[in-house]
Write a structure and sequence with these properties.
The complex is a heterodimer of chains A (294) and B (264).
Chain A lengths: L21 H30 L10 H7 L2 H34 L2 H16 L2 H12 L4 H8 L11 H26 L2 H9 L4 H12 L1 H17 L2 H6 L7 H12 L2 H34 L1
Helix pairs in contact in A: 1-13, 2-13, 3-4, 3-7, 3-10, 4-7, 5-7, 7-10, 8-9, 10-13, 12-13
Chain B lengths: L5 H25 L16 H7 L2 H34 L5 H9 L6 H15 L4 H27 L3 H8 L4 H30 L2 H6 L7 H11 L3 H24 L2 H5 L4
Classes of the chains: A mainly alpha (294), B mainly alpha (264).
Chain lengths: 294, 264
């Protein structure tokens, strides 16, 4: 794994030969750079401009005041963040053992496990949410099974439970792969050293393995959280009006209410939330790097 | 699985079932003989596949998705491969920042990209929203392509390139005859991955497709909202089959673990 883990691993390049390539590097980078400038930065910029439009034709922060002055929109933002947090915590708890198993498995078992984790990741979110509708619905597979066993039916669709189950399913592979990647690169001799020195397995895990895999957990958690607060298809299909989240509200403002400036302001709000989380990640990295140097 | 505690093995099997359950349920429900989506299905028949394969309401979006995915992947490769080679070979001030910018679409919620592209299209008066749709899909796929190629190229023995240069090949000949053949597995893996990402994308497609350009996920979504019958399970099964075939090719050609298990 280590041989092509990180592009950053190649920074120790020799000078001389490379310096001639400066101009070639620009030629290679320019097309992608310009493309992203036009079709990524451009739209976000237009989005920002749109969000500053006020009904009278002037420019200002009125759309943002509308969001932050209304308890409904504040509730939706709070719900979105709590939902993201809940999904992230469940993914860490469910995903860690699975990531551990993948990192430690050998040969065919490992290949099968990776395939099992990656396949749902590649199957469309719409299709997966649909699968959960079939399982969790009022007369779905799960309730049919409960009824057959003489147990009462469960209400799992059109509430937070169902949305959370389906969203955890959608995002769990990201967490598992992130944790497995970190555990793969962990030097097992450190664990063996702890064991040789007499630490019981639980202590080896708590004091050695877990701290050393923290980076994978953090990377996975940030990824899962940002994806959870940014996606709306699962909530659209398995939720109802009470389970409103910010991205779904944006979608509805655009398609149902056609209130573009307001939708734009909510989009920028979502972008700021996501950027804050990403900043938090790089800040955490900085802190742990500084601690490592001491 | 030997060497792992038994409880972990049991847990892993349970989680594997959880992960594949919704996929299996959809596939099984598609083969029902009845008129309703049920699990377990009532009877076995291929009637819903028959209906779907003869219905332009599904077949047109399927082809649209394939075409869009192929175009997005080609453009992504053309943009990402030279960029990846330059990033690693060149001496660039602020290389880390450039790389972060080029990979930034990975962290951007697609709804924001979708909304932005919608405004952008309207403001610039790009009459044909397909251009924006394609651009959106290139933005979504390009980081995957870039990351895979970066990974492979960083791991390759670059003394071979130096040897070619010493023997008189110029920069372009070296890139074409030496570098590209070596990084080809990475390019292939990245391309399949990029195609799958585009093939699955919903948010951008939902806001930017028209009746003529609608993609498969969008048509499945709108069909689900209005009619909930086994036809949607059948077309979903076809979508799943395409994905599984692509993944098997990826596994045979390159090994999925090499694409998925890279710390980033």
């Amino acid at each position: 794994m280590a041989d092509h883990a990180l592009p950053g691993a190649t920074k120790g390049e020799k000078g001389g030969e490379r310096s001639r390539i400066g101009r070639g590097a620009l030629i290679g980078l320019a097309p992608l750079f310009l493309f992203l400038l036009v079709f990524l930065v451009g739209p976000i910029w237009v989005n920002l401009i749109e969000s500053l439009k006020e009904p009278g034709g002037s420019q200002g922060l009125q759309q943002y005041l509308r969001i932050f002055g209304d308890s409904y929109y504040l509730t939706v933002i709070g719900q979105t963040l709590l939902f993201g947090l809940g999904v992230t915590v469940v993914c860490i708890l469910l995903g860690y053992p699975l990531g551990y198993a993948i990192a430690r498995a050998q040969g065919a078992a490992k290949a099968v496990l990776i395939l099992v984790v990656v396949t749902p990741l590649m199957v469309n979110v719409v299709v997966r949410s649909f699968g959960w509708m079939v399982i969790l619905g009022g007369s779905g597979a799960l309730n049919a099974g409960l009824v057959a066993l003489g147990l009462p039916k469960l209400e799992l669709m059109y509430n937070w439970t169902g949305v959370t189950i389906a969203m955890v399913h959608v995002l769990l592979p990201f967490m598992v792969l992130s944790i497995a990647s970190t555990l793969e690169t962990l030097d097992r001799r450190i664990e063996e050293a702890a064991m040789v020195l007499g630490a019981p397995p639980a202590q080896v895990f708590y004091y050695v393995t877990l701290p050393l895999s923290l980076e994978g957990i953090v990377t996975g958690a940030i990824l899962v959280f940002t994806l959870a607060i940014g996606s709306f298809v699962t909530v659209l299909l398995l939720g109802k009006t009470a389970t409103m989240v910010l991205p779904l509200l944006i979608y509805q403002q655009l398609t149902v209410s056609s209130d573009w400036p307001f939708a734009a302001a909510m989009g920028i709000t979502l972008l700021v939330l996501v950027s804050f989380v990403l900043w938090l990640q790089s800040w955490l990295r900085g802190v742990s790097a500084a601690r490592g140097e001491r | 699985m030997s060497g792992l505690p038994r409880s972990l093995v049991v847990y892993t099997v349970v989680m594997a079932l959880f992960l594949i359950a919704p996929v299996v349920v959809v596939v099984v429900a598609a083969f029902t003989a009845g008129d309703f989506i049920m699990f377990p299905p009532s009877g076995f028949s291929l009637r819903w596949f028959d209906k779907v394969l003869g219905d332009p309401e599904f077949i047109t979006p399927l082809w649209n998705s394939v075409r869009l995915g192929v175009m997005a992947t080609l453009i992504s490769s053309l943009l990402a491969i030279p960029a990846a080679l330059s990033l690693i070979r060149g001496i660039l001030p602020g290389r880390r920042w450039i790389e972060a910018f080029l990979l930034s679409p990975l962290s951007l919620p697609t709804i924001i990209l979708a909304v932005g592209l919608l405004f952008f299209t309207a403001r610039l008066g790009i009459g044909d929203s397909f251009v924006s749709l394609l651009a959106g899909h290139v933005i979504i796929t390009v980081p995957y392509m870039l990351r895979t190629v970066l990974g492979v190229y960083a791991g390759m023995n670059r003394e071979i390139e130096d040897a070619a240069r010493v023997l008189g090949a110029d920069r372009w000949r070296t890139a074409w005859y030496v570098t590209l053949p070596i990084i080809r597995p990475g390019v292939m893996a990245g391309a399949i991955f990029a195609f799958l990402m585009s093939f699955d994308e919903v948010a951008v497609a939902l806001l930017l497709t028209t009746a003529d350009t609608t993609t498969l996920p969008v048509s499945i979504l709108s069909y689900l909202v209005y009619n909930y019958d086994p036809a949607v399970a059948a077309i979903s099964t076809i979508q799943i089959a395409i994905v599984v075939v692509a993944l098997l090719i990826l596994e045979r050609a390159f090994g999925i673990r090499n694409v998925m298990l890279t710390s980033h």
